[in-house]
Amino acid sequence: MTMSNELTAWDRDHFFHPSTHMGQHARGEMPNRIITSAEGVYITDTNGRTSLDAFAGLYCVNAGYGRKKITDAIAAQAGNLAYYHAYVGHGTQASITLSKMIIDRAPKGMSRVYFGLSGSDANETNIKLIWYYNNILGRPEKKKIISRWRGYHGSGVMTGSLTGLSAFQKLFDLPRAPILHTEAPYYFRRADRSMTEEQFSQHCADKLEEMILAEGPETVAAFVGEPVLGTGGIVPPPAGYWEKIQAVLKKYDILLVADEVITGFGRLGSMFGSDHYGITPDLITIAKGLTSAYAPLSGSIVSEKMWNVLVQGSDAMGPIGHGWTYSAHPICAAAGVANLEVVDELDLVRNAGETGAYFKAQLKAALGDHANVGDIRGEGLMVAIEFVADRDDRVFFDASQKIGPQIAAALAERDVIGRAMPEGDILGFAPPLCLTREEADKIVGVAVEAVEAVLG
C-alpha cells in the first residue's frame, strides 16, 4: 500500500467528516481528496494534482496560502509561549495587540473583543451576552432573537437554530426557541417580480415589523444578519435594505448583530461589511478572515453601548460566568496579528474590491446571456451564478437534477474549485483576496467550460 492509499483507507475507516454524505464516503462511493500543500490561490493533493481554490477553503484564506510571515509568527509564538488562559484578567502580548488592531479597524462605536475559536461559538457568545444584557436592564422577557431564512450563523444548538437552512436543522430537532426567522433579502427570488429593489427592501422591513408586533416588542431582544447572505446563496442586499431594517430595530429597541464571519477583514472591498452598507451594529461576529484560517480564532466585538451595561452587570453580580479554555489562545492571536499586517501590506482590501468587480463583470460578459443563467450577483470577492430552467419565466430546475452540484463537479474536474450552494442551483465563488485578474480570467474560462459541459 502506498502512503496515499493508506491515508485514503484510514480516512474512510476513521475520519468523521463534517457536511459529508457519511455512507457514501465510508463505502468509497465519493472521492476523498487529501491536500498536502498550497501556495497563493492554489492547493495540491497527494496525487500531485493542483487546483485553483476559488473558494478560499471555506471563504476564509483571505491572505492566500503560504504566507511565511504568518507561519513564522505562529512558530515564534509556539516557541515562546504555546498557551496561557485569558481568565481573571490574564493576557498575552499577542491577544492584547490583536484586540487593539481589531478595534482600530472596526466600525465606530465598538469597544472590546471577546475571543473564541469558531464563528459558531462566537454567535453562541453573542446570544448569551444579549440575554445577560437584558437581564441586567431588568427586562427578563426580552429574549427572542430574529434571524433570516437562508442566513448562516453556525451549526451548534442555538447557532444552528439561528441558521435558516434546512440541512443544518432537520433531524437535529432545530430550531429551538426563542429563535425566529423572517424573510430573506433575496431579490432574485422575490414572489412579486414587479417590485423594485427599494420596494422589496420595504417589504422585508414590513415583514420584520409584523413579526415583532405579533410577538410583542417587549419580548424581542435582537436581530442577527450577515451583511451579504453567504452560504444561503451569496446574496447582496437589495437597495435600501439595511437602512429600512435598522429603522425598525431602532423603533422597538432591538439589538443588531452583524455576522461578519465572511465579510469581515476585506472580502467586500471594505474592511467590514457594516461600513460597506452603513450598518451600526451592537455586536459583530468575526472569524475566518481574522487569521485567514492559519489558526482557528473567532471573536465577538462588543459595542460601547453594550459594554457599559455588561460592566454594570459585573459590578452588581461579580465576574461574568462565561469563558472558553482556548479563548484568546496566544498562537491563534499571533496568527491574527501577522495576518492583519499582511492584509494591510499587500493592500488586499482594495484588491478585493477592484478585482472582485472585474471578476463579476467578466462572468456577466461570458455567461450573462446563457439561457440557463438567471442571475450573476455579488460584491467584492463574493460572487455567485444562479441557474434556472427558464430565465424568462424564472422557472427553477427540480432539485433532484442537482444542476448546481453537477456544474461544481465539472469545474473541479478542470482544476478550479467553486461551491455548489444549498437550496438552489447556485455556484459560488469566494477566492483569496490576493486573486489577480489573470487568475480571475482562468476561473471565468473554466466556468464557461463547466456550464457548457452540463447545460450545453
Question: Could you name the key traits of this structure?
Answer:
Aspartate Aminotransferase, domain 1; Aspartate Aminotransferase, domain 2; 4-stranded mixed beta sheet; 16% strand; 15 helices; 2 domains; 41% helix
Descriptive account of the structure:
- With 456 residues, the chain is α/β, with parallel strands linked by helices.
- It folds into two domains: 33-63 and 347-455, Aspartate Aminotransferase, domain 1 (Alpha-Beta Complex), CATH 3.90.1150; 69-345, 3-Layer(aba) Sandwich (Aspartate Aminotransferase, domain 2).
- The chain has 15 helices and 15 strands.
- It has helices at 3-14, 22-27, 56-59, 68-80, 93-105, 119-136, 157-162, 197-215, 241-251, 273-277, 304-317, 330-345, 348-367, 403-413, 437-455; strands spanning 35-39, 42-45, 50-53, 110-116, 144-148, 179-182, 220-225, 255-259, 283-286, 298-303, 373-379, 382-387, 416-417, 419-421, 426-429.
- The strands form three sheets. Strands 4-10-9-8-7-5-6 form a seven-stranded mixed sheet, sandwiched between helices. A four-stranded mixed sheet has the order 1-2-3-13.
